[in-house]
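Shift notes (night). Ran OsmC family protein while the centrifuge was going.
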Amino acid sequence: MAKVIVKANAANGFRQEISSDNHAFASDAPKEFGGSDSAPNPHELLLGSLGACTAITLQMYAKRKEWDLQSINVDVQEETVAGDDGTKKSRIVRTIEMTGNLTDEQVTNLKGIADKCPIHKLLEGPKQIETTVVHK
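Came back to this:
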């Protein structure tokens, strides 16, 4: 199970210190929202997670199949669109660029595998978020 801890201190503005078992990184709000833009904002981190997971999943699959997938670039963008009911909805657009000696069939197969990356499934599938607040 993945676990991260996010620590915020009002003295640091909106900068968040994030740690996992083996890594530390940060997030911050953009300047137009009162942050100092000292690190990626939460939306950028989320999109980066999808892009990284996509690339890793494709690399693992191609390696297992012994396909000549040499490089992957994943461009992930979030945009707001109008839903059928007139409400605003987020749409994530992912463009995958691959290089290597791959057949058309292999490329098509890899496109389908991209949708099987764990972060893609998490974002697209049903989810439940449980919140507990502890006040000290």
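The beta strands are 5-8, 16-19, 24-27, 68-82, 88-101. Helices lie at 42-65, 104-114, 118-124.
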